[in-house]
């Protein structure tokens, strides 16, 4: 989200450390929370509740603390576009996929965001190409992706196409998320980052509400402790605690360091999935996991040739998992 100060100020070490723990652990654990949620709630019910509740809290806090909250007409249009792309198509794509694939695999597929960002940046005016390190990362990343998709593709050849379709939905969601991040990086919001996030949450939630009503699958929701716990965790720790820590880090720490969550979150998700849900990868998927994480490291560390600012890092940091 934009509207953040351009240069970091002096950080409080303890607060910075806690903030990093929040975006590393809480955002990494959201894949596990979504996996629990979609076991009892249709995906669009889960994301609708998550985003609308979080939107009301964020926008309400802006009003209470008298922060600028009303966007201009132009800002409103951009917030609608970003909110629908990121939270109406991007996040729900990953959530829908977790009905059929593990939370760890979903997190690794979502980790392709830096690869998409690198490719999209090169197609835009006023941006240059990647150095050799970036191209190597993209090659390794998509090679690793083929390893991750191989078990699902193999199953589809035997008549079970659910996993490969779910993987495709997760990749489509990651692509939409990246497009929204690129747009967000190029848009300045007078109202500031928190208010902009609140409006994006609202528009993303409303879009998901329309999809939920159109599909009519909300009747299949099984309300209980598991459902409400999942929603509460995603709202409190995914959307509020994690995002607050993220905003603090953007204000006080170089963007390149904040962007490291892009390759830490999948590790957290895979570990939690293995320990709590007993998810296991087949050997070829472990190869894919290593390749994707290495690719993200290479791409996020590669500057575009047009200048000193690492715009890939900015795009990833702009895509905080609200």
Compact overview of the structure:
Helices cover 74% and strands 0% of the residues.
List the helices and strands and how they pair.
Elements: H1 13-37, H2 43-64, H3 73-97, H4 103-110, H5 113-123, H6 132-157, H7 162-185, H8 193-215, H9 225-252, H10 255-258, H11 261-276, H12 283-300, H13 311-317
Helix pairs in contact: 1-4, 1-9, 1-11, 2-3, 2-8, 2-9, 3-7, 3-8, 4-7, 4-11, 5-7, 5-13, 6-7, 6-12, 7-13
Describe the structure in your own words:
- The chain is built from 13 helices and no strands.
- It has one domain.
- It is an all-alpha fold and 322 residues long.
- It has helices at 13-37, 43-64, 73-97, 103-110, 113-123, 132-157, 162-185, 193-215, 225-252, 255-258, 261-276, 283-300, 311-317.
Features:
EmrE-like, single chain, mainly alpha, Drug/metabolite exporter YedA, membrane, transmembrane, 322 residues, globular, 0% strand, EamA_dom
